[in-house]
């Protein structure tokens, strides 16, 4: 059983490498520096008096609806549709001279993705906004968190503009999806390779 499993994994790894779009991770334009720790990625950009970081994790970042559709309609020789990783991401804006960090929790609404033609609409939304003490790893639940569901739209627009001024806009979000998808695929191949070694190890 293990031999067959290992053989299956070998074939699967070859197939996945064949369809791998990026041998190395795609860059995000606009002077963002990338740090990757396993499944977590962090993009950092410094502009006058501010540091902006965007953090996301690729785990559970592929919408589940995509997977269900492929099971039902796929004909044997059809290429599997491309899976896209659309992770939630957290933007932190740190000003040099304050002790507070503005934290914006963003996500890609599932129904928004792939709707071409709506030029004006944003492909990501801000879900929550809060202030957190700069430099502390653990965020405090006692800090007020603004949920954008009930937010005045003018304030919401200003927050989106505030992000866009710092390089977090639709172009950035598109590139983040591309980066995340490449990272997810890379980690998936690595997982298959680890699984193969694990299965073969007697």
UniProtKB/TrEMBL annotation:
Lineage of origin: Eukaryota, Metazoa, Chordata, Craniata, Vertebrata
Endpoints of the signal sequence: none
PANTHER family: COMPLEMENT COMPONENT 1, COMPLEMENT COMPONENT 1 Q SUBCOMPONENT-BINDING PROTEIN, MITOCHONDRIAL
GO biological process: apoptotic process; complement activation, classical pathway; cytosolic ribosome assembly; DNA damage response; innate immune response; mRNA processing; negative regulation of mRNA splicing, via spliceosome; regulation of complement activation
Region (Disordered): 59-87
Annotated membrane topology: Peripheral membrane protein
Sequence similarity: Belongs to the MAM33 family.
Name of the protein described by the UniProt record: Complement component 1 Q subcomponent-binding protein, mitochondrial
This protein's encoding gene: C1qbp
Subcellular location: Cell membrane; Cytoplasm; Mitochondrion matrix; Nucleus, Nucleolus
Pfam families: MAM33
Domain of life: Eukaryota
Keywords: Acetylation, Adaptive immunity, Apoptosis, Cell membrane, Complement pathway, Cytoplasm, DNA damage, Immunity, Innate immunity, Membrane, Mitochondrion, mRNA processing, mRNA splicing, Nucleus, Phosphoprotein, Secreted, Transcription, Transcription regulation, Transit peptide
One GO cellular component term noted in the UniProt record for this chain: cell surface
GO molecular function, one term: kininogen binding
Coiled coil: none
